[in-house]
Amino acid sequence: MPIHRKGQKDDPGNYRPVSLTSVPGKVMEQIILSTIAQCMNDTQVIRPSQQGFMRGRSCLTNLISFYDKVTRLVDEGKAVDVVYLDFSKAFDTVSHSILLEKLDAHGLMGVLSAGLKTGWRAGPRECW
Question: Is residue 70 in a domain?
Fold first, then answer.
């Protein structure tokens, strides 16, 4: 069922699809999440400067970190350039097959990804 996000209601790009996930699907999501999180912690894939989607870090901690760094550089007399990018719609167009291939290439999913490609993916297309 499409949910209206923002803007004009007659523009299909202003809606996002929503599908109901079964309890086994939710359990599988938690298993996948913990597997990926553990692997990323073990291999230190995510840098300490990563703020988004990290427990205990947010837009506010990102802003404080950014402000602190810019202030320090300006105090040292160094030039500072800032570029703002809006990726709000970028993830609506991510190819899930490419995403799964990249997870495999980095060794994050292993046998679990093979199960996802064959079994779970056979479910509702809205999820993928």
Answer: yes
Structural domain for 56, as ranges: 51-88
Compute the average pLDDT of residues 53-76.
Answer: 87
Could you tell me if residue 75 is inside a domain? Answer: yes
User: C-alpha angle 90/91/95, rounded to 5°?
Assistant: 110
Beta carbons within 8 Å of 38's beta carbon, 6+ residues apart: none
Residue 4 in 3-state DSSP? strand
Name the 3-class secondary structure at 30: helix
Q: How far apart are CA 54 and CA 45, in angstroms?
A: 13
The strand ranges marked E within the chain are 2-4, 15-17
- Give a yes or no: residue 71 inside a domain: yes
What angle in degrees, to the nearest 10, is found between the helix axes of 111-118 and 23-43? 150
Domain count, the chain: 1
pLDDT by residue (tens digit) across 44-54? 777 777 777 77
3-state class (DSSP) for residue 16: strand
